[in-house]
Amino acid sequence: MISVKDSLKIFRHGSIEILPENELIQKLNLGKPLRIKAGFDPTSPDLHLGHIVLISKLKKLQDLGHKIIFLIGDFTALIGDPTGKNVCRKTLSLEEIKKNVKTYQNQIFKFLDSKSTEIVFNSSWMYKKNALDIIQLFAKTTISRILERNDFWERFKKKNPIFIHELLYPIIQGYDSVKLNIDVEIGGTDQKFNLLMGREIQKNYQQTPQVIITMPLLPGINGIHKMSKSLNNYISINERSNIIFNKIMSISDEKMWKYYELLSMKKIEKIKILKNMCNLKKKNPMDVKINLAKELVMRFFSKKESEKSYLNFFYQFQKKKIPDILPMISINIEREKIFICQALKHANMIKSHSEGFRLIQQNAIKLNTKIVDNPKYILIKNKEYIVQVGKRKINKLIIL
Questions:
Q1: Residues 152, 82: contact at Cβ < 8 Å?
Q2: Segments of the chain assigned E as strands
Q3: Where in the chain is the domain with CATH 3.10.290.10?
Q4: How far out from the chain centre does Cα 333 lie?
Q5: Averaged over 315-335, what is the pLDDT?
Q6: Where are the alpha helices (DSSP H) in 301-388?
Q7: What angle do CA 240, 244, 246 make, to 5 degrees?
Q8: Per-residue model confidence as pLDDT tens digits over 269-284
Q9: Is the pTM of this model over 0.85?
């Protein structure tokens, strides 16, 4: 049996916050398996690598002997999580949610042990509630408490609409923890308010409040915002193996280390050694990135598919062929035109305009397979371009 001290190291690894940590230590000292929950709203058909950050954490805690509660928020998906949104989310239909639920169930056991994982749906208790039940639940907190949430407060100050049903989301998420008698809930840093609401609602139902663990958000493949389907910067685990491989290879060398830290099964000490060797130019970052792509494809598919994807990548890029499917980056511009260096900086494909000028002088930037020799080359709004920067960065760039 692993000691509390060693167990705590695994809980801490990769986490941003454990609140309150002293309560987690108390729970671990009881020597009983903890009920650990993570919730996922089926707002899209596929899980992506951003979800896998949480699921990988769940797997490590499951290996310690704890019970994993994988909550599919098919009821909360009807509301739409307002986290990080300055407008109301589009409401999904019941048919869309049911379709997405099926794919989640098929995908989750690629990572978690089915014997130690309980899949639950919050519709199974929320659909049974009558009007009186709902009123009593919503009486457990106040509007002023809900407005402490940054998303809502910013919208309130800017006089942007806040719909009543959106205010209910964190309360219902908190009630899920009551219904399941949760010891620990895990979520991204953007979920901190919702997770803390779970503690508050549990106290109001005379339960021991859950400990919350926040995890870092995985940046999307363009390295600007968090990975999200709505931003089209994601890597779905259900995509073809060669697409996943190519998308990982499109990540910048700088952002690659965040992917290693959050997704790789390598020990953090080994990752630090690899990073140091790259900084000292004793290892080529491209080779290190290839190993990451191989590892992830092998986890989602097989060793055979991993090698096949690598050979496909090697053939396309070493032979200077354009891959069949490219990761896409969308940028929004106010005017009808934009200079190429401005567009590439906006897309996070270069760090600065001066870098863009230098690369153009070196014939290192191509547009639709042709070398760009003019730093004042103009891209047009509502068009798509295949842009290659150096040997490794190649994307479909969409100007909106």
A1: yes
A2: 17-19, 35-40, 67-72, 117-121, 184-188, 211-215, 328-331, 337-339, 365-367, 370-371, 378-380, 383-389, 393-399
A3: 328-399
A4: 26
A5: 69
A6: 303-318, 340-346, 353-361
A7: 115
A8: 899 999 999 999 888 8
A9: no
